Amino acid sequence: GNAEIPHPAERAIVNLNVSSSGPNKTAVSDEVITAAKHLESLLRDLGEASEEASNPSPLSHWSKKSLTSSSHIPYNRDGEARPRKYSSKIQFDIRFKDFKALGAFGTKASALPHVEVQNIEWMLTPATEKFFRSQLRKDAARDAIEKAKDYCEATGCWNLRPVELNE
């Protein structure tokens, strides 16, 4: 069975990529590192990240991955090799508990060169998920029973009993 209980999001996970590419390996890496430092400065300005509701910081957590670099040789339509192209990237995972701060941060971050928002995932806190879990299971079981009754009625079967419970 299925069940849903609508509830507004309490957290947002923002995934940002800081990336650049070009013919100069050092310049590409420097562009990414510089933009990443600007992002870190914006995050530090928001305060120390904490999951605690009493903490005034709008962040519950943030992290960044190490700089990754790669290169490849592109080819033109005639199959001739073009100059080597270098790429560098740093990924950020930022968890917000204050959505107004998320909006302000997103505006500033997206204005930085080489910064791109990959996605935003909206979610509940673990405590809220736990609070709703039991009710969702009960609602899903009721939905499954209603579906089974519908199938039985359509096929002329009136002896409905559970045979298997699968989550």
- Overall morphology: flat
Name the beta content range: 25-35%
CATH topology of the largest domain: Alpha-Beta Plaits
* Rg from alpha-carbon coordinates: 25 Å
- Secondary structural class: alpha+beta
Name given to the CATH architecture of the largest domain: 2-Layer Sandwich
Average predicted confidence as pLDDT = 93
Using DSSP, what is the number of strands? 5
The CATH top-level class label of the largest domain: Alpha Beta
- CATH H-tier superfamily of the largest domain: Protein of unknown function (DUF541), domain 2
Distance between the termini: 9 Å
Oligomer state equals: single chain
What is the count of DSSP helices, taking H or I runs of 4+ residues?
A: 3
Give the helix level as a range of percent: 25-40%
